[in-house]
Structure prediction request, 120 residues.
Amino acid sequence: MELLTTLLWILVALFVAPTFYYGYVKMIAEPAKIRKFAAWGYSIKIMQVIGVVEIVGAVSILFPELRLFGIAIWTVVLTASVFSNMIHRESKKEILTSLTILLHLMLILALTIWLNNAIR
Prediction:
């Protein structure tokens, strides 16, 4: 059980660190992100709101009591990312990146559920 708990925390850390950063970059309106969102026809304000939502989701995943909430947030964000990338005909790499991150998130969800059920 300790091995699975350790694995879960490693997966959480590997998920939260980059996703928090990506949210922060959007929230502070980094010029490269502004250009990307502008090319898609999205406003800076929408980009910043998405950044805040990403940060809230990332931080929520750190706390076991809020983890499902954070996973729900990130599932919506990543699904929207996949569709947005498809609509705007971005490279397959962009789509696969979002899908890979979503798979990582689902692994965190599965381990969280498994450990919660094993404890009961």
Notes: The chain has five helices and no strands. The mean pLDDT is 91.
